[in-house]
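Researcher: Please generate the 3D structure of the following complex. Treat every line as part of one assembly.
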Amino acid sequence: MTAVSVRGLHKNYGPIEVLRDVDLDVAAGETVCVIGRSGSGKSTLLKCLNLLEEPTSGEIRIGGTEITGARVDVDAVRARVGMVFQHFNLFPHMSVLKNVTAALRHVRGLGKEAAEASAMTQLERLGLAHLAQQRPGRLSGGQQQRVAIARALAVEPEVMLFDEATSALDPELVKDVLDVMRTLAGSGMTMLAVTHEIGFAREVADRVVFMDEGRIAEAGPARATLDDPETPRLRDFLARVL
Amino acid sequence: MLDFLRTFFDLHEILDVLPALLTEGLRNTLLIAALAIVFGVVAGVLLAMLLLSRRRLVRLPARIYVDVFRGLPAIVTVSLVGVGLPAAGLRPFGREPLGYAVLAIALISAAYSAEIFRSGIQAVPAGQLHAARSLGMPYLTAMRVVVVPQGVRNVLPALAGQFIIDIKESALVYLLGLGFGQRELYFIAQERQAATYNSSALVAAGLCYLLLTIPLTYAVNKLDRRMREGRRFTAVPAAVAPVPAKAAV
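Model: Done. Output below.
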């Protein structure tokens, strides 16, 4: 089953072409890591998948539903696609628990108690239950990002997007977050992760997609592609980041 | 020196006028100010949302409203509403001048509050709206639950300033002529001053205003501190430098 299908995706900012004719399929349960230089369009690709960026042209399907049509319920699409941001973007004026219940209450329409019970289960799963009453500002970056993951998972999305989820973290906190992502990948979640952690991509991803100047320049099974790149551009990129 | 003291601090005068100030005056001043503040805040938040709209047609009426009511001297607005409306046959408050005073000051307050809220909301990082929308919240829900509460926290001190202005502007109701029982602080004091040619009553009224405004400032600052401590170590958006509206999401 195809969880995400992208066909002929273009995204322009005025005269600048950020995405040029991107085709991509992600099978249900598959983990795909998107790598590439900054400015190569990888974050924009991710944001198009939950319509935080509006595609200029092309077709995107999530679980078979086209989301790029004119009469699409954008909010319904986003509720099916969880997103984790580089800078966490937790709501600073709410406790950790309220961060996680917000969508359950205001999107799913759950009552306070049902939402909190469900949120606590999610927090326990990620080992964060003891932080439920804290404000995000009191947490370490690694804890904040795990809360952000719990928040995104709370609405039970079909697909999870990670936009450089570990780039803003201190090195010693990166592992905590990667561990959560690894577990999630192992649990059968469909994941697309933009990352600079080549080691993580090699180990956890089923496939790797290398983006260059708005195009997918190379894609393939993670280990084979990263160990033995075909294109000079990817070889060059890997030589720089490894 | 004695003349000076007698003109401004005649204890007999002050004690004489104090009962009227404290019972009738303070009550009516508070009534006008409180109602104007409540309306000003509610209308101000709504206007701020309109000001931040992507659509020009939505933005424009709010923009015009804010420019007009911020641009007019308060005394002109109070006269237009309090004298003009009844003269034109529009008497939503009958012959109750306090009603017109509340309306006029609320209209002005809403315009100023709108700009205060707008700057506060714009200072909330764009990632907050992105995160809320990515969870599937509709725009208005995301604004109500996530963005506006943070924006309001950003501007509490500025808002306290606006509340103080509202309290002070309630004095302009004297233009409309007040009957017994309707008089607010300034009206009582200036009546007294005109009758006795002594300003002590005005000094007493002034002290009553300070009794309202100074504790208000401290109360809001305390609230502000408490809210900030609740989120210590988080990135607090610096000041309220308005940034150009981000490509809406």
